[in-house]
Fold Cupin domain-containing protein.
Amino acid sequence: MSLVDEPGVGDPRLRSLYEDIAAAGLRPLWTITEQLLTPTPRPRAVPWLWRSAVLRPLAERAIRLVPVERGGERRVLSLANPGLGGRPYAAGTLWGALQCLGPNETAPAHRHTPGAIRFVIEGEGVWTTVDGDACDMRPGDLILTPGGAWHDHANGGDGSMFWFDGLDLPMVEALDAVFFEPHPELRQPVTGPHNRSEAAWAGAGGEGGDAARTMTPGAVTRALDPAPSPLLVYRWAQTDALLSRLAAAGEGPLVSVEFTNPHSGASVLPTLSCGMHRVLPGGASAPVRRSGNTVFVVFRGAGSSVVDGCRFDWTAGDMFVVPSWSAVEHFSDGGADLFGLGDAPVLRALGLYREETLPRRQEVTGVFGEGTAA
Ligand code: GTQ
Ligand code: FE2
């Protein structure tokens, strides 16, 4: 509301008070209280979906036309939520993006304070080197590049690769704590064999290991660990196996695991939580809302999610955002696997996390992309 519309501003003394307050670089709280202290979160980001059918051809055109070089650093298409006024963020707290690398390309080594995760969508042949440890990437794998760690991506194969990037960049930016540094070399040296963190933590869940310490059914509620997970790769085979076990144990219609720091039991990065959610065939999850933003990446299958009454129909490779405190429920006829990235560790650490299950299913009042809704 503009001050000139305020009741009583017809009074010249009041008008000049407001003018003098503004000229002094002050704002009268009583005119903006309701905008600021909202009964529930009012994220500027809106529920939104980016389709693989749109993302993927654009990424392929970029592979043909745009080299990956120093300065630009990465071939990345960031999800720009239309509620955020052109800022390149999926939600107020989360960066989400599609990254791609063609055959024999290298995305140069650098490091930065924002932490990142990669969830592999398609292709093979790329490894991400994290502080000297080359982590091979395959579809369904989760790879961590914690804040401060040197990282570069190298494609040693003969095909293109596509993965989802999630970063806490908007949070680190809000804290005015972004630092970035290029590595002196294009590729940092790889010290020893590939996948060393996986070998070191094999008993905790590396290839053939026991998933118990690397994944938690439901969501991690352990206290914040300011250190990132020492395990840098979480393999799809194990995620899949644990989800299948939970489904077989009758935990459906939605079974979820959160990836865990095997050292502390906390989330994978201090700022970011990563989980995998399986909607069983014919399943519908309970309607819930949570404080904190979530970005979902559809890994396998097709289905829909109803977010604040709008139905989002999705298929493999699609990405969508559920903003803070939006009601969400997922459905799939044939079954589907959704990767989820969230800021919950930060909310939990600060005592801001809230979650509630709604008493009944949402009424669908629109379909995303079909005129009325969104
Ligand atoms: O791969 O290092 O999507 O630094 C954004 C910033 C990816 C990366 C992003 C990055 C990277
Ligand atoms: Fe990076």
The chain has a mean pLDDT of 94. The pocket of fe (ii) ion (ligand 2) is lined by residues 110, 112, 116, 151 (CB under 6 Å). The longest helix spans residues 52-65. The first strand starts at residue 48 and ends at 50.
